[in-house]
Specification:
The structure is a single chain. The chain is an all-alpha fold and 138 residues long. The chain is rod-shaped and about 95 Å long. The protein starts with 26 loop residues before the first helix and ends in a 5-residue tail after the last helix.
């Protein structure tokens, strides 16, 4: 049997011990089999995920994620620069306040990106489980 290229319908016919085994299927029969299979898959909770936006949501969500990450990074840098400028203006530490707080803003922006991307766990506070540190009496 030659391999199909995907451009023409499958001519292999019915499969199994059915009376029509080997007979080519019509498009109506194929459509009925497809509907039956979709119904079985839907009853088992398997199948296509319903999306309200239609096609292209993968690209749109990727762009949204990129905008979110870039805005978090830029916000961190701008807040650090703004606080550094204010510190220099009111404390007279020019240019060291701007330099140090700009670098801290850069670090904070980078940390925000890593947290949003799921590469670094969020800090939930330090909790010591004392039951693990104590030795159990025998």
């Amino acid at each position: 049997m030659p391999l199909t290229t995907g451009n023409e319908p499958d001519q292999s016919g019915s499969v199994g011990n059915t009376p029509d085994a080997g007979k080519p299927l019509t498009s109506v029969e194929l459509e009925n089999r497809r509907r039956d299979l979709e119904a079985k898959l839907a009853s088992k909770g398997v199948g296509r995920k319903a999306s309200s936006k239609g096609e292209g949501t993968g690209a749109a969500s990727g762009v949204a994620q990129a905008m979110k990450l870039s805005s978090e990074f830029i916000a961190g840098v701008l807040v650090g620069a703004g606080l550094g400028w204010l510190a220099d203006r009111f404390l007279g530490t020019s240019p060291w306040g701007l330099i140090i707080l700009l670098l801290l803003g850069f670090c904070a922006g980078t940390l925000n990106i890593l947290r949003s991307a799921g590469r670094v766990a969020e800090n939930r506070g330090f909790e010591l489980d004392e039951s693990k540190d104590r030795e159990k009496p025998e």
